[in-house]
Structure formats: structure tokens, C-alpha cells
Amino acid sequence: MEIVEKVFTSTSKMKSNKVLLATMFTVCSLTAMSQEQAKSSYQESIEKGIALLKQDSLLQAEQFFLQAIKAEPTLKSNSILYNYLGQIQERTNRTQEALTSYGNAINLVPTSTEFLLNRAALYMRQENADRALNDYTAVLEQNDNNQEALFFRAYLRTSKRMYKEARLDYEKLIELNPNNEKALLGLALLNDKDKRPQEAMEQITRLINIFPNNALYHNIRGGMHQQRKNYELAIKDLNKAIELEPTNPEHLISRASCYIDMKKRKAATADLRKAQSLGGDPIIIAQMLKTL
Fold first, then answer.
1. What is the per-residue pLDDT for 49?
2. Which of 32, 34, 211, 215 has the largest CB neighbor count within 10 A?
3. In terms of C-beta density within 10 A (0-12 exposed, 13-18 middle, 19 or more buried), how is residue 224 classed?
């Protein structure tokens, strides 16, 4: 009897094991098939999304990228898809959704300078200086020579009156690229704000020497001369700006301001009337005319 029971038990276990193995094999096969189908669906959705993106069919592309993420939600490569989604949502004026998508991309790959720069630029457009500053700093922690991050962090630091820190960023940028227009201009304006008139004048003059036909730089230097009451030098620069861009009302308004300081009311009025005819800011022009 014991022998029969042992044989029966053994046989029963063998049968049970065979059933279990068969079930496991079926489950594994179905899982493998499911995984393959998911991978195929993932790849197809990405390919369709990219094709639509190239055709500028943004909303349709967005749906395929979302489908891809749904098919394989745990993949690190989804960071690229979230970045695409952020760009699409930004272009279709859905700012908050774009920030969320960029955030998802950064969560998956925190060291990606591309994703951080995209979100920082959007924060800049939102005038969210603190968050933009954090993202640009995060970029520079990965690569302290990133010129885009250096420039915008310097700009933001200047706007927050962090002059010492901003100067370091501009100087680093100029060290990397000695003829960087934006950095040279930013540093000149920073030094002017920070009451370093000699350095500011030297830097704007350096810019004019490199780019002699840039009307804006002549306008800025004219304004610096005006602040220092060097009116004749100011007028000389402002005349040059107007010569280079005769239809720009901003240069005429700047020269009118200088003429007002020089008590030349007739010349100031003529410039303001001309600026008005060229579409200059009516509020500024009206305020200046009241002072004459």
C-alpha cells in the first residue's frame, strides 16, 4: 500500500509539474509575444510621429509620441519623446504642458543639457527668472563652457543686480570667444549700470571698432556720452546711428533726448516729429514733447 501511494504521489507530482511547466511556457510565450508587439508598436509610433513632425503636422505627431510612451512607459529613451512633446506643446501655445513634458524628459535624463536649455528658454519667455537661472546653472554644472547657458545666466544675474556674478559669466564667455557680440555688449551695459564708466566706454568702443556699421552700438555709446555730459560726442554717435538706420525712430528719439539736455528745443522737436512719422512710441514722444 505504501509503495502504491508513493508511486501515485510521484506520478501525480510529475503530472502536476508538467502542467505547471506547460502553463509557465505558455505565459512566457505570451509575455514574449506581448513584449515584441509592444516594441513593434513603440517603434512604429515613433516613426509615424517623426514623419508627421517633418510635415509640420504637430498635433498628429503628438498623438503618436504619446502612444509610443504608453506602449513602453519605462524606457529611458522616452526622454527624447517627452522633449519632442515639449517642443510641440510650446509651438502650439500650451506652455504649462510643455514645461511638464520638459520636466519629464529631465527626470529621465537629469544631465541632458538639451532638455535643460529647452526648459530654461521657456522659463525665460515666461519671465520666470529664478527657475530659468536654476536650469542654466544646472547646465553649467555639466559643462562650464556652455556659451548659451553662460550668456543667459549672465543676463539674468544682471537683471537681478547680481553684478559680480554676472561679470564672471560674461568674462568667461569673452575668454571662450573674444569677439562674442552679445557678451561684449552685455558686459558694457553691466559696467555702465555698476558705475564703471571707463570700462563700459572701453567695451562699447571695442564693439564699434569690430562692428563699425552697427547703428545700435553707436546709439548706446551716444547715450553713455550723454550721461557723462559729453554732448558733442553724443551727438556725433547719434548722427552716425541715424545715418546707418535713417528710418529707425529710436535713434531720432535718442538724439532728441540729447538735444533736450542741450536746451536745443527746436532740433529736439524736429527729431520727435520725424520719429512720430516713422512709427515711434507715441507715449514716449508725447511725454518728451511736453517737456519742451
1. 86
2. 215
3. buried
